[in-house]
Amino acid sequence: MSEWKEEPQITADRDTGLQPWWRGLVVAAGCAALAGLSIALSCREVGMATLWYANAFGACCLLQSGRRGWWATLAALTGGLLFANGLAGADLRAAVLYAAPNLGEMVLGGWLLTRSPDWRQIHRSPLAGWRVWWRAVLLPALSGATLAVLLLGGTGVTPQSATQLWLTWFEGSLIGTTALLPLGLSLLVHREGGEGVRSLARHLVTGETVALMGLSVGTVVLALPHLPFPFVYLGLPMLGAAMRLRYLDVVLQVWLVSLTVGATIARGGLTLPPVHGDWQTLLLHVPLLAALLPPLLLAAAMESARGRQRALERERERLRQLYEHTPAMLHSIDTEGRIVAVSQRWLERLGYPVDEVVGRQATEFLDGPSRQRMLQQAWPVLMRTGEIRDIELRMVCRDGQLVDVLLSSTGERDARGRVVRSLAIVEDVTRKRLAEQLAVQFQRMSVMLASIGDAVIGTDERGCIVSFNPAAVAMTGWSATQVVGQFYGTVVHRRDLDSGEPLLDPVLSCLSDGHCVNGQAARLQHRDGSSRVIRETITPMRDPDSGALIGAVATFQDTTTAHELARTLARQAQHDALTGLPNRLLLQDRLQQALQLARRSGGCLALMFLDLDHFKQINDRQGHDVGDELLRQVAGSVLGAVRASDTVCRLGGDEFVVLLPQIGTAEDAAEVARHILGGVAQPYRIGGASLHVSFSIGIAVFPDDGEDEATLMRRADTAMYQAKRDGRNGLRFHHALDTGLGAP
Ligand SMILES: Nc1nc2c(ncn2[C@@H]2O[C@H](COP(=O)(O)OP(=O)(O)OP(=O)(O)O)[C@@H](O)[C@H]2O)c(=O)[nH]1
Hints:
Domain PAC: 389-441, 518-571
Helix content: 40-55%
Radius of gyration: 64 Å
Organism: Sphaerotilus montanus
Number of domains: 4
Strand content: 15-25%
Number of strands: 18
Oligomer: single chain
Bound molecules: guanosine-5'-triphosphate
Pfam family, one: PAS_4
Keywords: Membrane, Transmembrane, Transmembrane helix
Largest sheet: 6 strands, antiparallel
Structural class: alpha+beta
Strand order of the largest sheet: 7-6-11-10-9-8
């Protein structure tokens, strides 16, 4: 023995928990028991030990003891062997001579087992079983038999010849170790795997195990005494059990069968073949070995196959779980296009139960155009190349909803390279497509908002700005980044057009009552201090589904030009173009207001008609332009003669009207008229000429001369004509026409 290699993985003995002396006692007792059993089963009639179990036990004990406990184990085994031989009647010398070859076998077997880890695979690899057999069974038996002949031959301890001794030793050791070593090694393997004794026992005591073991043992009991070639019959149940039972069950059965064979032979229940003694042992042991060894190898092969089968099933189950529960839409189809498997995600997204999907054509779940594309383009490519990538399709949910998908598929091929099935991954791109469409729409809207001439400002539900287009930037002077998050009213400063007072934030009122604020005109203050007139509209924005307010959009446009134009037009409509004085339209308006006031207050007003005297002559002599200028200067003179609250208007030609809205008496009006007459009496210097003009003035007084506009106008006109008739350059009151009063 060169070196005992510490086998780091052998842990059986190192954690038994037994005290060394107690363990030694157990080892010695076990060895003695098995040796004693073997001796007891020896067939004395033929002078041989049919099977020898102690060496298998010893090899296992040495294997599990490790390097440190090796000597103690060996000592215990020696003690056990000596005790058994002594008990069988051998003297000490004979016992020592018998024990020595057995110890040699144990050591050789144990050492060879530690050199190779094959024994751990014994239960699931026939090759490992074979290697273990010839290394730990055959070689030790050959060595032991040879050593026995060397030690015992010629000592008189045994009556057998050297050949007989070698044969009986070799065969007994070979059969006994073949029968027991696999059981011992299996128990060690199970113990290393953490399987307890109870679990092993529960597994062993099953109906099938007991029945098959009973069949094998019964075959031994029946066949050995009564049938020729009994081991042929024994082989059948043994092989049957090897195919059905676990390896541990089979090795236990092998050991029990060997025990039964040994017991049967010991009882003389075997009819030995009628040949010479040496041949008799061979013809007994070779068939027995042939009956015991193949079931062991077959059981390992079956265990291995079952292990592979279980691994395959686990793998298949794992793949099935992975397939069904992977968070992706998967389906598999056969060559006819029928769905054969589908993932949970696929079913959830399209809303189908699995039994409505499996077996149906995959194209049934596509809309019309997609079905055509699949059948005419994608499917032929898949069948030909075994692969298609990112085919854009539209699937139909159970409720009719459409789902945009990208389908990629890979074909499974048979041995001849033909596609027999394909696995498709379906990517739901509905949201992606929607997002793309929204992005395009958003871009278009952004361009539109940027291009639009009106300011467009979006706010959130609180009234804070969220978008601000370039027109708004131009009109307010704020940049979009400066205003986002600010209230509309703090950015868009608006004032009342007439009063100039700051206006409230219209977005806030729109958001509070949910109503549009339509076409409000206001003056917008630019950041640079300038202002412009705007017309703004505030519209609430609502969530299309819930109807809840989600913000507001304010739009306004610059209406400064239109506003100024309107004001100019309004002014032109009410004023005389030549003199800038109010015209008849405005006069009527003011007269109406003055009459209302006078009626309410009980006051008086006067309406004066003024007509230039002989103006035609000036026109004719000096020209129309001079006449125009004269009219302008005369208008200024009249204006200078009245108060700011009075209205001077030109009716047309050389006719003027003065409205005095508040007078105390008619004399007040006469005073003003005289003042006017005095004013225009001054010469006007126009174009180098000095021109003299005068007015004929007719006056009507409210309420004495009339109570409405038309009457007052008519009567003032009448009075004016009277003034003309009376010689011009004077004034006449209407109410004094009959009395001749009112002359200056
Ligand atoms: N330069 C100028 N002349 C005007 C304008 N409108 C009217 N006239 C002239 O004013 C004159 C008015 O003359 P009348 O009021 O009819 O007669 P008159 O010469 O003033 O004489 P009496 O009124 O009777 O004192 C006409 O010759 C018109 O052609 C105007 O806008 N500019």
